[in-house]
Design a protein that fits this description.
The chain has 474 residues and is α+β, with helices and mostly antiparallel strands. Helix content is 35%, strand content 20%. It has a six-stranded mixed beta sheet, sandwiched between helices. A four-stranded antiparallel beta sheet has the order 11-13-9-14, covered by helices on one side. The longest helix has 27 residues.
Length: 474
């Protein structure tokens, strides 16, 4: 079947409109499963969610749909090979677990009983991430309808984990154990969003993260500040000095070697960021904050998306009750996190922080520092052919609108796929900031959800010309 681009767009839209109601009914059925991975009482619901998705992917046409066990919650793997053996392989990532939600949190209705109002579907997981995973099922069917194919134009795989909202503690092990099955030429992450409804965008990268907890020990117990203060080291004072030493006067991280290897923004990237319709006052309202502050020489968006940072997440020690208690406390605690950008190695950052901290500790203070499992940063170059393919497909879905590029300041498991599989990671999401991820009354804009369906329908036909096949097929 051969169609002009305009005819293909109309064929895709007609197919989607004909199947929209059934698609939304099925999505609502999945959203009713309270797959909250962080709450042990919902462990069976998470498993039920995985089973539901595997069955639905089989019904869609995926020739393989399996539940993969982990040491925690199960993931779902699905595969639909192309009938063209030379087609590239695409792996789509998402997650089927959701954040906790209860009516008393401020929801207007039951968070696990989806309802549609004013073109929006409200439910926990509607945007994050069940809606954005599920649009791939209708998208691939619309792709087949528009091309007359019986199998996708790419070797299509999905990996949908069940612990993303719990920090993906077992995801890397899962990817390493099944690296041969997950091998791909391109990874598409559908767990992100766009700038706004009127400004369609594609994310090009996420920051990594390394975090640590620091324990400082001074006297063997709380002691009298009059009898001993000023003559022995105070761990709470040391904690304050550590925090004060974390940044210099330009708000740059003062840990020696912290910026080694950082991939700086190009002039072109800075220009693209500057083109975005950024309202700093509105952004501050969203941040519940009253002023901006950060590394000198960079805009707010550049600081959040493309610069590494260090934050004090918590500080404690000594007496915190009402009134005074004149002591030198026995201990103090700090929690720090470091957001990392392309070019930074979390292992090297950990060593640098350990050395920096040791140099700040005075005699008489014992310290312990423990790092959590790091997440590596990932970044796709703006000129990567697969990124251009995603932008073309999205532009067709949005009636030829220009597609702009953003980054994500947060972190996620996408970098594990990039590290283990050696494939570029791209992002395809249609959620907007007002969707309220993790918040009460989470929703998804249904017209945008259909734009996600359209984008994937066009993408699978566009990618083969942009990305040569390299990944071995099973």
């Amino acid at each position: 079947m051969s169609e002009t681009p305009d005819n293909a767009v109309q064929t895709v839209r007609t197919y989607i409109e004909q199947h929209r109601a059934a698609f939304l009914d099925e999505l609502a059925e999945w959203l009713r499963i309270p797959s909250v991975s962080a709450q042990p009482d919902h462990a069976q619901d998470v498993r039920r969610s995985a089973r539901w998705l595997a069955d639905k992917l089989s019904d869609t046409g995926f020739t393989t749909a399996e539940i993969w066990e982990t040491a925690g919650a199960p993931a779902v793997f699905a595969e639909w090979p192309s009938d063209d053996p030379d087609a590239p392989t695409v792996l789509v990532y998402g997650h089927h677990d959701v954040q906790p939600a209860a009516r008393e949190d401020g929801w207007h209705t039951d968070p696990f009983e989806p309802h549609i109002t004013d073109g929006r579907m409200y439910a926990r997981g509607a945007a994050d991430d069940k809606g954005q995973v599920f649009f791939h099922t209708l998208g691939v069917r619309a792709h087949l309808a528009a091309t007359g194919r019986t199998a996708p134009a790419v070797h299509l795989k999905l990996i949908v984990e069940g612990e993303e909202e719990s920090g993906s503690p077992h995801f890397r092990d899962l990817v390493e154990a099944h690296a041969d099955r997950l091998a791909a030429d391109v990874v598409i992450v559908s767990d992100t969003g766009m700038w706004s409804e009127d400004t369609p965008t594609v994310c090009t990268g996420m920051r990594g993260v390394a975090d640590c907890e620091i324990e400082l020990y001074g006297p063997d117990q709380d002691i009298h500040s009059g009898s001993f203060g000023g003559a022995v080291p105070n761990p709470a004072t040391v904690a304050g000095r550590i925090v004060a030493a974390l940044h210099d006067e330009h708000e740059r991280v003062a840990v020696p070697g912290f910026y080694d290897g950082v991939t700086d923004l190009s002039d072109a990237e800075r220009a693209l960021i500057a083109e975005l319709p950024f309202d700093e006052a509105a952004w501050l309202r969203t941040a519940k904050s009253h002023g901006t502050l950060g590394e000198a020489g960079f805009s707010t968006l550049e600081r959040v998306w493309a610069r590494p940072t260090a934050e004090v997440n918590g500080i404690g020690g000594g007496y915190q009750g009402p009134g005074g208690k004149t002591i030198v406390p026995a201990s103090a605690q700090l929690k720090l996190s470091f957001r990392l950008v392309a070019g930074q190695d979390p292992a090297k950052i950990e060593l640098a922080v350990r050395d920096w901290l040791a140099a700040l500790i005075p005699a008489g203070i014992r310290h312990e520092i423990a790092f959590g499992a790091p997440t590596r940063p990932c970044l796709t170059p703006l000129d990567h052919p697969a990124l251009r393919s995603v932008a073309r497909a999205m532009s067709r879905a949005f009636d030829g609108a220009p597609i702009r590029f953003t980054r994500e300041g947060g972190s996620g498991p996408a970098a594990d796929l990039q590290d283990v599989l050696g494939a570029p990671v791209l992002f395809l999401g249609i959620s907007v900031p007002s969707d309220g991820w993790h918040a009460p009354n989470e929703k998804v804009e249904l017209d945008l959800l259909m734009k996600g369906v359209e984008t994937t329908a066009h993408l699978w036909g566009d990618l083969p010309a942009a990305v040569p096949a390299a990944a071995p097929q099973r």
